[in-house]
Amino acid sequence: MTSLTASLARGALTSPFKRAGRPDATLPADRLTRPASPVAPGPLAAYGRICGFTESGPLPLTYPHVLAFPLTMRLMTGHAFPLPVLGLVHTWIEITPHRAASPAEPLELTVYAQKLTPHRRGTEVTMATEARVDGELVWESRSGYLSRHRQVAQAAGPVTAVPPDAGSLPARAEWRLPGDLGRRYGAVSGDRNPIHLHPLTARLFGFPRAIAHGMWTVARCLAEAGDPSSIRSVRAGFRAPVLLPATVTYAADATGNAFELRGAKGRVHLVGTVTRQTGGSPTG
To answer: What is the pLDDT of residue 10?
Structure first.
């Protein structure tokens, strides 16, 4: 995780010199790759415990994203990346597992910036991540990160609008999230963004308290989604931050293919959908 810490420090230094919303902004063409490496069992087990995944079986659907995050941060904090990394908001993620990956299989990881998109609240960048085993693409994802700034002209809306029935799915579980969840998840994922660690550091970025990692919320929901081998794609949108500590409700339809995370007063924090292979169904 040392490289990730270095990237965060570099991001803090370079962000003041970057101006979001430049009309001539372009993305770096670099594709950063981590050579095939085995998955360390200790960190994987710690990740599984904090997110609620089973101790055996294939890699959790969200774990390649965690493994590749140092590469993502290195690219996003580089001088050629046009957006300031400080203040970027993770807005959505799409995950496509082409087959189940075993923890015993060495993964080669590749990250690149795919596109910039005008957003009604600023500029959104799409980051792509790919995982391969012996050259075979076994997993890929796309993530949106929003850099907030004023728009001169009318821009597009969010990538995915909030479904009209958001908040209506039946409750399946209630989770009480401790105030130190951000620090605990940061320790196992390496994502030690100040907004997640402590109320004092979160206030520097406009949050009254530390907030839960978006990737923890989607991982915790997917841990409830049943048989991971039946899942062919996941789409999740982050709607509102979860201020810690908190009590949240996991809600899902009867199939487990539509899910959401709601706050104590019904505020929707996360909406998601899962597509499965024919005959796939939740078992959890």
So the answer is: 58
Q: Which residues of the chain have pLDDT under 70?
A: 1-24, 149-166, 279-284
What is the C-alpha separation between 237 and 160, in angstroms, rounded? 7
Opening angle at CA 106, ends 102 and 111, nearest 5: 105
Query: Tokens 């990237």 label which residue?
Result: 7
Q: Which two tokens stand for residue 282?
A: 């939740």
Q: Locate all alpha helices (DSSP H) within 77-156, ordered by sequence.
A: none
pLDDT for 160 = 47
Q: Distance between CA atoms of 39 and 35, rounded to whole angstroms?
A: 12
DSSP state for residue 268 in the 8-state scheme: E
Q: In what order do the strands lie in the sheet with 268-276?
A: 31-37, 107-119, 122-133, 136-148, 89-97, 231-238, 268-276, 258-262, 246-252, 171-177
On the CB side of 243, how many CA atoms lie within 13 Å of its CA?
Answer: 10
Answer for the pair 225, 80: CB distance below 8 angstroms, yes or no.
Answer: no
Q: Which residues contact 160 (CB under 8 A, 6 or more apart)?
A: 92, 235, 237
Instruction: Evaluate whether 131 touches 139 at the Cβ level (below 8 Å).
Output: yes
Whole-angstrom distance, CA of residue 222 vs CA of residue 57? 14
